[in-house]
Specification:
The chain is of the alpha/beta class and 268 residues long. The chain has a single domain, classed as Rossmann fold, CATH 3.40.50. It contains seven helices and seven strands; from the N terminus they run βαβαβαβαβαβααβ. α1 links the parallel β1 and β2. The radius of gyration is 18 Å and the shape is globular. Bound molecules: beta-D-glucopyranose (BGC).
């Protein structure tokens, strides 16, 4: 891969494992300096930062912050400004699941998922747009004033029993992303989402780690393989680069066809 993002500064939230980690690595490979936001596991995050800066000769900084807390988000952006000078790319990736039957779901389970998955994306996107506007367009770096990539889910459109808080948060991400995209397009700020299907990460390990679970999962995946974090990372690099300069307000499904109503492969 060429260094398409040379000189750009990227913030990836929830980047110490899973999809976020793969995106942080690909950002480095593409030549961007990267802030690796994480919430727990200082050693893992610092080690990843060391590996990225060594492998790709970019700056990589691990920064601990809870994206659902405004003051922590502010402090993270301040540090990014102080150490990297600007922000060109935000990848709103931090997310979690707190699954429960709907009538047993606690308010805490509801609020935690909405707080991280939706409010966290709002707080980071708001701060990124404030920064983009202060900075202006730097033509030699990118045609856009800034790029935001929201990591949503197939569950922004596929209802999900037992995961109502999660599906509601991702449905919220979809309308937030599209409405913000509409609001800031005239500034040349692009806002898009990636909607992963089943990807091999810790969040859904129960769905793929045994042969039986994997077989059941494949009934939902026409392409008949689980996604890898790199499948999402490559899409994120594309959405962050000028290769997608005319793309904004789009939900890009990277899901092996999960959205194709696989139950209708036969019959109907
Ligand atoms: C969820 C995973 C799930 C996948 C497909 C993702 O958004 O986090 O747990 O396997 O959607 O259902």
């Amino acid at each position: 891969m060429t260094r398409k993002l040379e000189g750009q500064k990227a913030l990836v939230t929830g980047a110490s494992s899973g999809i976020g980690k793969a995106i942080a690595i690909e950002m480095g490979r593409a030549g961007a300096d990267v802030v690796i936001n994480y919430l727990s596991g200082d050693d893992k995050a610092n080690q990843l930062a060391g590996e990225i800066s060594q492998s790709f000769q970019v700056k990589a900084i691990a920064h601990k912050a809870d994206v659902s807390r405004d003051s922590e988000v502010q402090a993270m952006f301040e540090r990014m400004r102080a150490e990297l000078g600007r922000i060109d790319i935000l990848v709103n990736n931090a997310g979690l699941q707190k699954d429960a039957a709907f009538d047993e779901m606690t308010l805490e389970q509801w609020n935690t998922v909405i707080g991280v998955n939706l409010t966290g994306q709002f707080l980071c996107a708001r701060e990124a747009i404030r920064s983009f506007k202060r900075q202006g367009i730097l033509e030699q770096i990118s045609r856009a004033m800034g790029k935001i990539v929201c990591i949503s889910s197939v569950h922004e459109v596929i209802p999900w029993a037992g995961h109502v808080n999660y599906a509601a948060s991702k449905g919220g991400v979809m309308m937030m992303m599209k409405s913000v995209a509409q609001e800031v397009a005239h500034l040349r700020i692009r806002v898009n989402s990636i909607c992963p299907g089943a990807i091999r990460t810790p969040i859904n390990h129960e769905a793929w780690e045994t042969a039986g679970a994997y077989e059941t999962l494949m009934k939902l995946v026409p392409y008949k393989r689980i996604g890898e974090p790199e499948d999402i990372a490559r899409a994120a690099i594309w959405l962050a680069s000028d290769d997608s300069d005319y793309v904004t307000g789009v939900s890009l499904f990277v899901d092996g066809g999960m959205l194709l109503y696989p139950g209708f492969e036969s019959g109907g």
